[in-house]
Amino acid sequence: MxxxxxxxxxxxxxxxxxxxxxVVVGAGTAGCYASATIANAGYDVVVLERKTxxxxxHIACGDALKGANAFPDSIPKSQxxxxxxxxxxxxxxxxxxxxxxxxxxxxxxxxxxxDRWEYGRRIIEGAATAGVEFRYxxxxxxVRQADDGTVTGVDAIRKGEPHTYEADVVVxxxxxxxxxxxxxxxxNSTFDTNVNYSQFCSAYREIVHVEDPVEWHDxxxxxxxxxxxxxxxxxxxxxxxxxxxxxxxxxxxxxKLVDDLKRDxxxxxxxxxxxxxxKLGAALPTRRPYDSAVHPGFVAVGDAAGHVNPTTxxxxxxxxxxxTYAAEEAIAAIGDGTVDEDxxxxxxxxxxxxxxxxxxxxxxxxxxxxxxDTDELMGLLAAMPGEQIAEALYSGSTNIGWGLKIKCxxxxxxxxxxxWNLYKTKQRADELLAHYxxxxxxxxxxxxxQAERDELMERVYETTGADPKY
Length: 470
Known about the structure:
By secondary structure, this protein is α/β, with parallel strands linked by helices. Helix content is about 35%, strand content about 25%. The chain has helices spanning about 5, 15-20, 30-40, 75-80, 115-130, 180-185, 255-265, 315-335, 340-370, 375-385, 385-395, 400-410, 415-435, 445-465, and strands at about 20-25, 45-50, 65, 85, 90-95, 100-105, 110-115, 135, 140-145, 150-160, 160-170, 200-210, 220-225, 230-235, 240-250, 275-285, 295, 300. A hairpin with a 4-residue loop joins strand 5 (about 90-95) and strand 6 (about 100-105).
């Protein structure tokens, strides 16, 4: 129902909490861009956020925002620009202690390091300006469904009181391992339920203030941990305010994140006498995007649908676009009077066309990292030019011709098997990328596409020697 149709029914808060055109769960990037898009089209939308109004927007994040020059305009760029604290970053520094090497890796496109809490507040403000209503202190407890399985709303507790929010479409922006997907029965649709904790990364970060400017204030610094599938990052918000964090793939034995990060900080002279301003932990998906993120009356966006680069953890831009695409297809479906899978399917296609296929190919390298010895992998990376690493990280593929293979063999000091393994893995990633670029245009062809993809994944596991991830 449109804003105009609601005009005669908005007499009480209970009625307003009862019926909406769309309910969005989560006030993160995906939720704010989705809700702003819907509100800009003249529809009634409410965002349910479990945090207080004062805490909303405060999440653990690496703070690096890639592609800041090409964000969706449902929230104007001018609204979020004041949160950009460092726009001089143009490359990455990959520290490889085992090889006593630092790789300089170019980062294509516009990059900004942001104050994530300020950014979070500003996107909430931008959505509110578009006409979105927010309900803070609201914890979703269940998903409402019709007899045919269509999602029709959610139940929640707000400040200790039960509330029901009914809507034509529910947008799940509730983040990693969303409770909505645990509560809803999604078994009779294409919605991806092949999701478990081992496909995610556990991370912890601190905002650290140092007295003297760091010399690498124009770079994102990455460093592997002592064991596979773990990494440290140092992202300079300013010359003296650094986002320092550590994470590990949850296929591995748990790491003592706080202790390991503090140990590395103590060993870096630039952090002598540093002051911790903020600290927070989180989980994020380091997996391929959901095969399908639609169900009748229901769409998942951002972290809740695996919309994160699985090799870098970058997810802000993908979340903004996923939220926008989901909202635009939801608007069209509501206007057509049906919110079934066919009506929402174009959202899946748009995600795959924009970044989903690329992220699925990148996941192959994430899988490889769980099967290769850390020293072997670091030796290989130290032998590769930064341009090829950058291409692999951001485009999902890179050119590894015979000339580069020979150079790597000469520099890799005996890591010949790993060089060959990377070359074969690259072929598997390219095959997978080509398959995702043929993502089906309707649910009718989905299961055949999925079966062929699963065959390609068997080849990935065979090539890499990794345990199956899915």
